[in-house]
Batch of 2 targets.
Target 1
Amino acid sequence: MTILDGKKVSNDIKNEITEQVSKMKERGEKPPHLAAVIVGNDGASLTYVGSKVKACERVGFESTMVRMPSTSSELELLDKIEELNNNEDIDGFIIQLPLPPQINTQKVLMAVNPDKDVDGFHPMNFGKMALDMSTFIPATPFGILELLDRYGVDTQGKHTVVIGRSHIVGRPMSILMGRKGFPGNSTVTLTHSHTKNITQITSQADIIISALGVPNFLKAEMVKDDVVIIDVGITRVPKEDAPKGYVITGDVDFENVSKKASFITPVPGGVGPMTIAMLLKNTLLAREYKNLK
Ligand code: GUN
């Protein structure tokens, strides 16, 4: 069994990006600049955005965090997006999700200039992704592809089962694994809350990508020998004696499933760190696309 070490791979990627940024600076170019908008005070979202800003510093990017109160109106957020769209200094930006209930998420994501949409959430970029055109691939799916690639995990002709159809992970992952090329060329089954007898499906899977958010959902009895496991779950489970009062728990019963798996991502330290590294990579791509225009 091989652990797919997202912490190590994401560090390698950040080192590669740092080197590219140094070269840009040597050529007298400005470093890439990423902005992140966060509306409200959700603890997990603040942690994620904080990590994104820290990662920018680490690779030599400029970064801007835009904080807006939880009571912000949709119009106020749309105005802020317009400002970022028109700010020549900013190469790419993200709107941290989820947004408060008074704001229509789809409307907001459609207002982002597709050339600056480093999350790859704009329908134009999502469509391009589905049509094999070069574009921004959402960071978590992009990170999963990169992990599979760097560990040489064979995906061609394999049966990939995706659990969960979220717009951020499950849906794009189901498209990407079926695309032509590597990693891809899989036969994909997308399962969700209405799927009947999920064990019958997971037990036939060569690769399982679980993005459900139910701690320890996937048990050893549900998988076959030598399965490849990608665990995208990151649920905070309360635990009194833990330093933060909670532990981050994946969708997979790691202790038992890892005994049957050929490759498996740990939680934490698997997919999570990859997401941030690929957001940086997309920001670098935003600069490259801009230079091509
Ligand atoms: N919320 C959870 N994951 C993500 C992500 O990848 N991007 C943004 N913008 N918000 C998120």
Target 2
Amino acid sequence: MRVLVIGSGGREHALSWALSASPLLTKLWVAPGNPGTALIAENVAISAIHIERLVQFARENEVDLVVPGPEGPLVAGLTDAMAEAGIFCIGPTAAAARLEGSKAFAKQLCDDAAIPTALWEQFTDAEEARDFIRRRGAPVVVKADGLASGKGVVVASTVEEAEAALDAIMRDRAFGDSGAAVVIEECLAGEEVSLFALCDGTDAVFLGAAQDHKRLGDGDTGPNTGGMGALSPVPGFDAAAAMDGFIRPVLAEMARRGTPFHGVLFAGLMLTADGAKLIEYNVRFGDPECQALLPRLRSDLLPALLAACDGELGRFDLRWTDNASVAVVMAAPGYPAAPEPGSDIGDLSAAAAVPSALVFQAGTRVEGGRLLADGGRVLTICGTGADLAAARAVAYEAVGQVPWQEGFYRRDIGLRPSSPATP
Ligand code: AMP
Ligand code: GLY
């Protein structure tokens, strides 16, 4: 099998790492990849958004399977374009990727399929949205309808904050056309869990559950980020019930509408006092959740992805180790607002040599033989162990072996939200 992974983050490094272990693999490319993927695959200098060039490359190089990491190319029709060229791409069509590409679409689908979610209203008129916010009061959640690189959601504790979010999204178009509509939601409280399933249009297999740590600082303080770390599995989480409640009804409804969903479906859940409720769907693996999930997978990922393309997942059973894993993100100074590029990371071999540790690269580049920071989230260091405490110990031991002086990280990744945040 000749496989092309698309993306350049820690998630794509982890996907490439998992795929490179497959005996079925004969050639692995990553577009555009990073210096970490270059160690195990051949990087191709094509950006993830250049769909035509990706199709041309896949055609010319007889790629058998395309494995996209990020949502952007899927929402923009990557899978459709590959299908036209006769190439399997394990991700949803643009029509099915609307589950992530439009919050209002996902919320309407929840209502149609009786999937529990926060109460919501959609607005295309800013003044109507403002009236609604004022009538409803705070706390309230304001969301840009379209993609906004994870930044289009404001959980507002005051009406003023909600109105400011509305102005940024609809009036100032901080996220461009993604702000042509807003979704305003009831604010839910509880612990968050990310549920992952691999889907083939009709059947789904469980890919694991994880918890992200979205805030920048220890003890869940500071601004929201793309994710500063993840743990898996989530103790006490009833994955079978969540698959029945939040994955299978989506597949049935999408198939009924004539837009069956193939690929990784990621349900972001809030475990409220009234039971689990859907916060959002994503149509891909999470980052850094992927880096925490894949080291626990015992089965070969490649045939599972192929089966998901083929509609053959019904016969598939993925096997997992009993281990837990903890993934710690190391970020550049200034992240998330304005990460400073160019600091010297140093030699990662001591960190990678820590037993049961894995080093995944994201925002890195090589210049003059030196590995430099080149983005916000720069490294994900993953540890596995018999339980979360053991996995945490491995991850932080490896973090301690990274010579990068400027890099920073949270010290409480892998502690449950209810645990005290001690380093
Ligand atoms: P999203 O981009 O939809 O994942 O939202 C980002 C984050 O905002 C989520 O992970 C939650 O922490 C928070 N969030 C989104 N919707 C709600 C809601 N209805 N109630 C409370 N928090 C929310
Ligand atoms: N870590 C959350 C996400 O990838 O959306």
